[in-house]
Structure formats: structure tokens, C-alpha cells
Amino acid sequence: MIPVQDAFDISCQQILMQDATVFSRQQMDLPWPMAEGLSPATLLERYMAHIRRFTLGIIQPTRSEHQVLFRLAGTRLALLAFEPPKLSQTGDETSLTLAICGGMLVQRDSCDRGELVFSCTPLPQGMRLSLSLSDYCPLLLGSPTPKKWRKTLYRLTQAAIHKVVTVRFLKRLHREHVGQKACCRVVRVPWREGENI
After folding, report:
1. In principle, which of 69, 107, 164, 190 could form an S-S bond with 78, CB 3.0–4.6 Å?
2. Distance in angstroms (rounded) separating the CA atoms of residues 114 and 134
3. What is the per-residue pLDDT for 2?
4. Dihedral sign, CA of 136, 141, 144, 148?
5. CA–CA distance from 191 to each of 12, 15, 107, 125, 132 (Å)?
6. Which CATH architecture does the domain made up of 9-196 adopt?
């Protein structure tokens, strides 16, 4: 049985793996019946709307039959491009996986690596919601052996923005479903080993 977290905690880890790929995971539990109606598909749709709202429309997530794109407003430039979402089931966990297939923020020789995953796992007292980014090769890191200044630049810019966006997304879900504005604590959890970023 999966232990239930404090409903006001958001578990988080964001690290650079040994092969210089990024792993980032944020996770929260919502109690029943507040979690009813949530699924990986609804998480994706609401996340896309959150990105648009959070960036004041500067980033425009779009979805077609063939791709999911995070575009700069008013341009055809895709910051990130994903293959169509794929639904899967592992035990009780249901996941929607978007494989990275390109974009300006991805190293050119690593466009076929990385994925963004939205997951829901039912618990006796509620639902566990998880967002994970793994095997991602950011352009800012430059190569599988990034220099220290590149790591610092990535940590202070793109990594920080991704963490803030995702944590605020989960806070918004909590507020909307629980019906109150909560001061969620962000708790670091060591799911994997790597360098904190």
C-alpha cells in the first residue's frame, strides 16, 4: 500500500543525472471526494491552460492530432515539441506520456530523448497526482558534459521557471478542488540520485 502524504505537501525533486539529463518530479495527494474527475488527460489539459495563464500568453501550448507544441506567441517557433500523448497503465497508476521530439530548448542531437508524464494513482484516502520530466537534454547545458557556468545558467533560469510553474499548477489544483487557499509546503524527496539544480 502506498503511504498517503500530508494533503498540504508537494513533494519535489529536480536534479541533473550522471548523463547530464534532467529529472524533475512534483507530486501531491488530493483527498476524496475532491479528487474525483481528475485523470492524466484532464491534468494535461489543465496544465496547458496553466502555462498559457502563467506566462500571460507568451507561451501558447497547442495540441493537434500529430503533436503537442509549446510555441512563442505570434510565431511558429516551438520551444518544445512532443509526440501525441500515449496512455498507459502500470498497476494502479494511470499515466499519459508525451515524448519530446524537438523544440528550441532541446539539444539538437537529443531531440528524440526525454518525456513529460502526467500520472494519477488512486489511494485509499484520495488520489496521487504526479508530473515528471525525465531524460530531458536542455539546450542551455550544451552537451552531455556541461561546463559549470552552463549548469548555473540552467539552474537559475529554465530549471527555476519549470519548478515554479509546476508547483503553482499543483497549488492551483489543490485550491480549486479542496475549496480553500492553502499554503502547501514544498518537500524535497530523493526519488533518484543526482546533482540538485
Report:
1. 69
2. 5
3. 44
4. negative
5. 9, 10, 25, 22, 11
6. 2-Layer Sandwich (3.30)
Residue whose C-alpha cell reads 517557433 in the numeric block: 77
Chain centroid offset of residue 68 CA: 14
pLDDT digits (tens, 9 = 90+) for 10-59: 999 999 999 999 999 999 998 888 888 899 999 999 999 999 999 999 99
Specify the DSSP element, H or E, that contains 132: strand 126-136
Q: Which of 18-22, 143-147, 175-179 has the lowest mean pLDDT?
A: 175-179
Q: What angle do CA 83, 86, 88 make, to 5 degrees?
A: 155
Q: What is the pLDDT of residues 77-121, one digit of tens each?
A: 999 999 999 999 999 999 999 999 999 999 988 888 999 999 999
What gap in Å lies between CA 114 and CA 161, rounded to an integer? 18
- CA dihedral (112, 146, 189, 88) in degrees, to 10, reads 0
**DSSP of 136-192:** E-BGGG-SSS--HHHHHHHIIIIIHHHHHHHHHHHHHHHHHHHSS---PEEEE--SS
Angstrom distance (rounded) from CA 86 to CA 76: 25
The secondary structure of residue 110, as a DSSP letter, is: G
**Contact (CB, 8 A) for 38 and 30:** yes
